[in-house]
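Narrative of activities, Objective 1.

The group set out to show that a structural description can be obtained from nothing but a protein's sequence at a throughput compatible with the screening campaign. Below is one input-output pair from the validation batch, recorded exactly as produced.
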Amino acid sequence: MGSSSWVAILLFSLTLLCSCFATEVTYDASALIINGERRLIFSGAVHYPRSTVEMWPDIIQKAKDGGLDAIESYLHAAIKLGEKILTNGTRTDKDLGNSVTLTTYTNAAGARFCFLSNVDSSNGANVDLQNDGKYFVPAWSVTVLDGCNKEVYNTAKVNSQTSVMVKKSDDASAKLTWAWTMEKKKDTMLGRGSLKAHELLEQKEITSDASDYLWYMTSVDINDTSIWSNATLRVNTMGHTLHAYVNRRYAGYQFSQWGNNFTYEKQVSLKKGTNIITLLSATVGLANYGIRFDKIKTGLAGGFVQLIGKNDVTMDLSTNLWSYKVGLNGERKRLYDLQPRISVSWNTNSSYPIGKPMTWYKADFKAPFGTNPVVVDLQGLGKGHAWVNGHSIGRYWPSWITSTNGCSDTCDYRGKYVKEKCNTNCGNPSQRWYHVPRSFLNNDKNTLVLFEEIGGNPQNVSFQTVTTGIICANVYEGAQLELSCQGGQVISQIQFSSFGNPQGQCGSFKKGSWEATDSQSVVQAACIGKQTCGFTVTKEAFGVPINAMNSINGIARLAVQVAC
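Output recorded for this entry:
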C-alpha cells in the first residue's frame, strides 16, 4: 500500500475518533497536523469481520485507553456501499438450496443490501433472483449485491495480475573475493564477563535488545575423572539456538525447530581440576504477538544446566556462579561498519575457512546495473547476519530446509481452512534471497559483511536483480483484463490463453472441457509488443455465441499467461 493510501486511512480514522467536534487535519512530509498542532499518531488495527457492531464502542474505548490515537481497519469499498443499510437495517436469511443462502438487509425506507453465499467447496451455483437478476456464485464464495440487484463484488472473482519474478545476474556481479577474520573469543573462553550471578538470567533483560547473543560462563572442579572424563552436557533453554564450549573446545550447537524451549545435549570431555564451560545463547527474533508475548522468556532462565557422568551421576550447575557477557566482540568493534571503531586485520592472503562457526567474511562488489530491485543470494551459508555498507539487511538461515512433504502443483483454497493448504517451496530454505535497497548502494564500491554463526560456504554468494518473468491473469466474463510488465519491458509472448473453463494456476494453466477457438488470437492482437494491455472479457470478444451450451455451467473465464 502506498504512503498516500496509509495517510488516507489515518485521516479517515482520525475523523471517526474526532467526530464530536470540528477538527482540521492536514499533513506535510514531517508530521500530521491536527488543529495546527504537529502530532505523533499511534495507530492500531481492528479486523471488523471479527467483531459485531455492538462491540465497536467498547473496542474503540479500550483502544483510546491503551494510548492509541487512531484505528486502522479494512474498509472494503463494496461493504461501504451498504454501510447505512447494514448498520440500521434488519437481517433475513433465505436458504435457496444447493448450499446457497441469500442474506438481505432492509432499512425502514425499504432500501436493501444483499449477500449470496455458496458454501459448497466444489460446485458453483446459478441463482435466479427473478426481478433482481441472475447470478453465478462460484464454489466457496460470497457475492455482494448493491440494492440486491447489482453484483459489485465476489470473493472468487477477484481480478488481479499475478507476477512471477525472476532473478538475473549481470557482468557487474562478478564472483566475490573474500576477506575473513574469526570472532575473537579469548575472554569468553576464559569465563570473563561483565556481570555475575548465582542463577541463570533471562536473556532479553540482560541484552536490552543490544544483541542477539548472550554468553553464559561458569567453571566446575573435577576430582574423579573416572566418572566425568566422558560426560553429557545437558541444557534446558528457551532458545532459540545454543552453542557450547568446554575448555575452549567447541562441543557443537543445537536449535529449537519452532522457537520454543528445547534441551541441548552433547558429549563433552572434562579434565581433572578446573573446567570452564561457556554457553552462547542466540535469539532469532522475538515474539511480537499472542497472549503476554512480552513475558515470554528467552535464554537459559527457568531452565537448567547439568553434567551427566558415568552411571547417570548428575551434577546440577544451575546455581553455580555464572558470568555474563552481552554480544560478540565483532559487534563491539563494528566489523560490519565501513569505519570500524577499532582497527581490524582481515585475512586476504590465504583461502577463507569453510564450515567454520563464528567467522566474519567481507567482500567488495559493484552495484548491479539498472534500476530493478537488487537481492543478494546467500545460498551455501549456514546461519548468521548480513550487512551492506554498514546497513543490516537481516538475519539469514538458508541451511534450515523446509519439510519435503505437503506441497502440490495445484492450489485450491476452497473448503475448510487448514494451514497446510497451498504450501510451496518444500525442501528448500525458507529464505535464500535478501533484498538490498538501492538507497544502501554506492555507484562505485560497496561492501558486504557476513557474520557466519554455524559455519557455511560463501563461494556462491552473488548479487542479482529482480524483474518480471511471466505475468498471469484469471478473469471472469464481464470483468476487465489488465496486464502490465515492469521496467520498460513489453509483452513478448502469449504462453497460454484460454477463454472457457480453464484449470490450474499461474505457471501450470491447462485447458478445460471447452474453450473459444479465438482464445489465443484475441489476446495476441491486444497485447503483443505492449507494456500494458487490457479489454473487457466477453463472449462476443472471443466469438462465442451468447446461448452456447457451455453457459449452463456458469459464466466463462479467461486465463492468460504471458512473458515480458
